[in-house]
Amino acid sequence: MPENSHESVASHTVPHGPEADRPTFWTRTRRRIGEPVVEACIRLSGLAVVAFVFLIFLFLLKDSLSLFREYPLGQFLFGTQWLPISDPPQFGVVPLLLGSLYVTAWAILICVPLGVGSAMFISEVAPKHLKNVLKSLIEILASIPSVVLGFLGIIWLAPVLRNTFGLSTGMCGLTGSLLLAFMALPTIISISEDALTGVPRTYREAAYGLGATRWQTLWRIVLPSASSGILAAVMLGIGRVVGETMVVLMVTGNAPVMPRSILQPLRTLTATIAGEMGETVGGSEHYFALFAVGLVLFAITFAINFVADLFLRRARK
Amino acid sequence: MLQAIEGYSQYIMGPRIPTFLMLAWAAVVLGGCGESLDPNEPQGFIQTKGSDTMVNAIQMVSEEFMKEYPHIFVAVTGGGSGVGIASLINQTCEVATASRDMKPKEIEMALQRGVNPKEIVIAYDGVAVIVNKNNPIEKLTIEELHRIFTGKATNWRQFGGRDVPIVTLSREVSSGTHLYFKEEVIQLGQKDNKEEFSKETLLLTSSQAIVEEVAGNEGAIGYLGMGYLSERTKALWVGKGQEFHPPDIENVLQKTYPLSRPLYAYTNGEPQGIVRRFIDFMLSPKGQRQFMETGFVPVGETVAREQP
């Protein structure tokens, strides 16, 4: 492959004639020395990525384990109180974990039907000019910084939700879920849309040929054929939602309670790390506790990616 | 809205400011090299970090300071008193600002790392308790605040207000104001008191976020440094026993307002060189006037008396 591309470049720059095909001194040298060097570089960057992931994991593990020298593991995993600056401190991760799960679950419930629906509309139903407009709008949507969404959340969405549901405060889990759903939408729409467009024309033609309506074709033929891609889109969306920090830190109220309802203030894993990291002194118990929270978060995202990968493989077979 | 953006700017560009500003400073200094730069003129870079309560005041002081010493660059970052103290211990800032004093545990940790914290009182502040403008409540005692913030009282009706559930707002745990409020109101000044903020308390990331929520929510009550008081919310008169006082300069100065506290700057050891100049400038009448303009109470009586 690389050789071909070299020669195609050469044939563009050098005019016709037999000399154009003969490798010059420089191209020969480049092949002899250049290619192994490039190959080594590529291999090195590939290995570096693997090494970085591994090192990050080790680093997280090392600092989290330091916590459990002073603080019992059981109390961390099953404790229901997060009181980091009290004396003695309580580092129970359960309220934070549940907070993250509540917010994520609701965000997914909101954004998956919406996202897949829009993708179906864009790829199958919308006329061509509308399709292009929608696609670029979705790209713009993806480029809104999360902190800006957080603001809209504080200034506009939270008061609206407070009045609609008659809540005591609009800084609650649902505000976070709605904004997170909004953030995950572009990912889900564009990847699902790619998957739907990727379904071969012949499938559709065969379905129409058998007398299927447009809806039947879309629902029974196209959607199932694209299911692996759509699943990947959903998983990537979930990954984005679980890891998102700024929005939840700003709008969910961050009260470390055991959540009972999504209409209540709650605190997520990510918001805890972001909100508290700055004030911890390197090497203190609180510092290690935040690393342990990070490890829990890492385990969750790792599991999600793993499951997504498993589904993708199964779908391919 | 812009003010609100400032509250969050630490997250967007927190770590970037120093690098960017350092480059700017380098450009200024190097650019000036060609001209005659008096080698005796003080120059350098000072990083201050810490209290969000004071961040606006410190920013104004440092702007004045940089006018006087154009070759010294001061970068001001917030994050909370805990952040400032942690970075002083981690040696990533020259001056830590804090709205609470260092805990014995922090001092011990600092000494272990070869940092010898030196405490300087740079201004005084009252912690104001704010409610929505439509809330008919005008004054509360410390005892009543304690019941509200620990979750023992949950409706404004209990204090003669409307039948609206109380929503308590607090700053994040990195805030010095959070810690001060916890000691004075939640623990009622008793160190061995094990009471905590009600778990339903919302922990917000900036004083500005507290203002936003209180301004829009009739049931909300929050606390913040006097510097953040505005027309959009109502500050309560706070009392111990029967005597109530509003959070203003006179009452903080006389210590009659019960939630009055000093604001600190911490340096590593006795301040030297340009850091010394910066601290001296903060304590000078010129620096203290900046604190007063941003709503704090100056340390020197003379400056306080100057006000009309």
Features:
heterodimer; A: 317 residues; mainly alpha; MetI-like fold; 2 domains; globular; B: 308 residues; D-Maltodextrin-Binding Protein, domain 2; 3-stranded mixed β-sheet; 12 helices; 40% helix; disordered N terminus
The total count of helices of chain A amounts to 13
Low-confidence stretches of chain B: 1-17, 32-36, 304-308
How many strands, what sense, and barrel or not for the largest sheet of chain B? 10 strands, mixed
In DSSP terms (H or I, runs of 4 or more residues), the helix count of chain B works out at 12
Q: What shape does the CA trace of chain B take?
A: globular
CATH architecture of the largest domain in chain B: 3-Layer(aba) Sandwich
Which structural category fits the helices and strands of chain A? mainly alpha
**Quaternary structure of the protein:** heterodimer
Average of the residue pLDDT scores of chain A: 86
Total number of distinct structural domains of chain B: 2
Helix content of chain B: 25-40%
Q: Which CATH class of the largest domain in chain A?
A: Mainly Alpha
Q: Termini distance of chain A?
A: 28 Å
CATH superfamily of the largest domain in chain A: MetI-like
Question: What ranges of chain A have pLDDT less than 50 throughout 5 or more consecutive residues?
Answer: 1-12
